Automatic annotation (TrEMBL):
Family as reported in the entry's similarity comment: Belongs to the short-chain dehydrogenases/reductases (SDR) family.
InterPro entries the UniProt entry points to: KR_dom, NAD(P)-bd_dom_sf, Sc_DH/Rdtase_CS, SDR_fam
Disordered: annotated segments: 208-228
Entry-linked SMART domains: PKS_KR
NCBIfam families: PRK06523.1
This protein's name: SDR family oxidoreductase
Amino acid sequence: MTTIENGSGKRELAGKRALVTGGSRGIGAAVVRQLLDAGAEVLATARSATSTVPERATFVQADVRTRAGAEALAAAAQETLGGVDIVVHNAGGARPHKGSSAIPDEEWQDALDLNLLASVRLDSLLTPGMRERRSGMIVHVSSAAVPTPVAPFLHYTAAKAALENYSRGLASELAPFGIRVNTVSPGRTATPGGEATREQWAQMDAAPDQNNTAAPSDTNSIVPLGRDGQPEDIANAVLFLVSDRASWLTGSSLVVDGGEFHRG
Ligand SMILES: NC(=O)c1ccc[n+]([C@@H]2O[C@H](COP(=O)([O-])OP(=O)(O)OC[C@H]3O[C@@H](n4cnc5c(N)ncnc54)[C@H](OP(=O)(O)O)[C@@H]3O)[C@@H](O)[C@H]2O)c1
């Protein structure tokens, strides 16, 4: 268990109210656990009813891909928490396809709704309250794969790239109101969604001209630190960004990938 204290014995996020999308498993579930351990009140959401969210957190079912889902979630946050100080936009993902032209229109739309517009809509509903209180912390979960897009995931990485750009712009807009907005970009992380997606990618019958899109398989040769990430590795970065330790950080992107994706 990770307990973050502020040096005076008080848990670091005591008194803070947090909303986590996709909080029922994988990275989101680790973020929920760490926020609770740091003393925050937490509302977690996912589409399916779940018994995996700790009892100390409140769970509400919602689909963040639609404006109706975002509105239901914002209303639940107001009702159960009385407002939100921390938002972690974690729900995301997409299925791989054989190549760019095999990605159907509806999956492009779905990828954009889940990986970009869900955050845009929810932020638009939650930031007015943060502006009034002149404080807030927002984290968007992107992907370390954004700078090196591959054909099976163009819908996914394009949506995440747009999310990162939006996140930086939102950070500029909201900084004068004391609201910090940052991005965490995970590399390959051992979660139910991540492993299922890599399995689908590995099983895809790659055509000869698509060999360069083959799913990477041997973690030791891919990740310089020699292992896949664990959900807690990503949650550690999220917790840092929403804590006062990051009080001078906004508009940043923290890549947590074991050194896999070289940048610049
Ligand atoms: N794992 C990796 O290797 C990896 C790498 C790079 C980036 N990421 C990013 O990290 C984030 C978390 O990934 P993960 O691997 O932990 O995913 P995961 O294991 O698939 O968990 C996804 C969570 O989001 C929820 N969710 C999915 N669609 C939703 C929707 N429309 N509305 C509300 N909740 C929804 C899921 O519950 P329900 O299905 O019940 O809704 C679940 O709680 C994603 O943004 C992903 O793109 C992951």
